[in-house]
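Subject: complex prediction, re-run

Hi both,

The earlier run crashed halfway through, so I resubmitted it with identical inputs.
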Amino acid sequence: MPDTAMPILDVKGLKTVFRTRGGEVHAVNSVDFDLRPGELLGVVGESGSGKSVTMMSLLRLLPSPPAEMRDGTVMFDGQDLLKISPEELRKVRGSKIGFIFQDPMTSLNPVYTIGFQLAEPLRAHMGLSKAQARSRSIELLQLVGIPDAERRLKDYPHQFSGGMRQRVMIAIALACDPQVLIADEPTTALDVTIQAQIIELVKELRHKLGMAIIWITHDLGVIAGIADRVMVMYAGQVVEEGPVGEIFRDPQHPYTQALLKTVPAVRGPRAERLQVIEGQPPIMYEAPVACSFRNRCQFAFDRCSQANPALTGISAPGHRAACFLLDKASTPEPEAANG
Amino acid sequence: MLTFTFRRLLLAIPTLVLISLIIFLLLDLAPGDPLADQPLSIPPEVRQKMRDALGLDSPAYVRYLLWAKQFFWVEPLVFIDWVTGTSFSEGMQRIVSWQFRAPVFDIIIQRLPQTLWVVGLAYLVGVLIALPIGIISAYRQYSWFDQVGTFISMIGFSVPPFFSGVLMIVFFAIMLPWFPSIYDTTLVVDDFESFGQQIRQMTLPVMVLALQTTAQLSRFMRASMLDNLNHDYVRTARAKGMTEKVVLLVHVLRNSMIPVVTVIALGIPSIFGGAIITEQIFKVNGLGQLLITAIYANDLPMVQTLAFIFAVLIVLCNLIADVLYGLLDPRIRYD
Ligand SMILES: Nc1ncnc2c1ncn2[C@@H]1O[C@H](COP(=O)(O)OP(=O)(O)OP(=O)(O)O)[C@@H](O)[C@H]1O
Ligand code: SF4
Ligand SMILES: [Mg+2]
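This time it finished cleanly. Structure:
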């Protein structure tokens, strides 16, 4: 495990707020995480838990207004991505950090050819000539498994199927050999067989190209199969993180436990019925002052509404969770928990 | 694309024939007598002879067919003769204006330059101003620039040219005597000074018409840009590390232009409608004024021909809009 290596991406205290007509929405609340070279970090959480907003904040991709990066540092390559000038940021975007988005149907520009859209980052970041960009584009399309690559450069996005478009998006994200690839639910919009193909493709490319990947998904099954480390988000906060085996074997946060109960077991006897988590994740109109999960938590006790639990380490290395239950001193007696 | 254009052109023919017939029938229904202007002292027999000479009492279909023959056959031949110096049209009867007693097309050709200079230039100026305003207003939505743009567009939208025209004359021709209020058609541009004079006399009518075009088009451009700025592909372009200039002027603009180009093409005929009023106010003797005087004088061949030319223009601009749409948007396939 490259556990001791220096992180290539180090996020601390990230806060993103949307200023809307109805007031502020605190979408990301003091998120800390890091990413080590060559690692695949899975990010899970219900819809609205702030996964996309967190990742887009890293590269300042959210339109401002309404988004506002209120606090935090994003250290990458010795510089803070939240502080550097727009020109310096552009040298990172698409070149050192690649991004793949959820919906391949709308993420490509409909009026330009695939060849044009692929060549853009190549020419901007790597300074390739037209001919060089073209041959590299063909290589890239072959890399992501698009047959007849040379001819397809002239085609427009609408001439590709959803799965093929997502492959094109991956090719664009990988165009300049990034050190980090951020994939925001890259398979959610695709059907199951295509989904499996794309996951296989990323697994294969990851070993071939050796980059670090952040993979956002709803699908814990996918995470179990590909991630090295998992980060669970709820209400714009990281509530648990740790090595993938630890998280699945011994989840500490009640939210993670509940999430895992919503996934059918792939192996072993189907002991329990699948469960759903009652209720909805809250929309944060202000920064959290208490545990955001308390209204849905079956273990909630007085302290949970008085303060916001911080991420604390557990015995297993690298495994942390944010829940007062872990603070043995404050844990109530079992009967009090159900009161 | 080419076959599509050709098919549309062929299809335009029956459409136009139908339109010409409708115009003819409508004008035929309209009350009024082309000889009403003639002195009452003309004896009835003479009056009847004049009616016969003009073919006024022959049945409607004969008059329509005669006009159609002259419009679709004789006038093109005259045009060919004029260009190549041949004499195919010799001895053929052209469409003659009752009011001017001269071929309708000769008069139209005389009047066309004034209209093109004023109306055409105004449209061009309007478009060229509107597009950047729309782009900047969308990119800097709710900025002071956008607010000012919104305010001016509101004025351009709600104040009709016959009002803004008079207002302009009051301000810039009378209170501040910078520009002439009347367009002098006889002005010959042959040196620097007369060129300056021409520019000055064109300024007010061009401004009035351009204000209208700018107001409508800049709003449209802004809306189209705003719509496209929210699309996912914009985020992709930014995530690729493209500069804001490329994001805006390469990615967003091309998509936003698709509906706007259609509106620009479709707006060309309607600007001639606006010209009718503006030409009256500034006394520009262009096509708009020609149409008005022809209507007053019951000059049916002139009205019929001008109205039909407008119709041709509308059909043609529709066709151009469709073709441009297909050229700009690769998702559109016509065949
Ligand atoms: N433009 C915006 N204006 C206001 N609030 C927003 C905006 N975009 C996102 N949010 C809020 O930020 C929160 C987090 O959204 P985000 O898109 O990051 O969720 P997510 O975890 O990616 O969900 P999903 O799985 O559905 O993609 C949501 O509660 C949402 O209401
Ligand atoms: S802190 Fe309290 S409410 Fe929050 S998850 Fe832990 S027990 Fe539940
Ligand atoms: Mg998301």
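Chain A touches chain B through 32 residues (CB under 8 Å).

- K.
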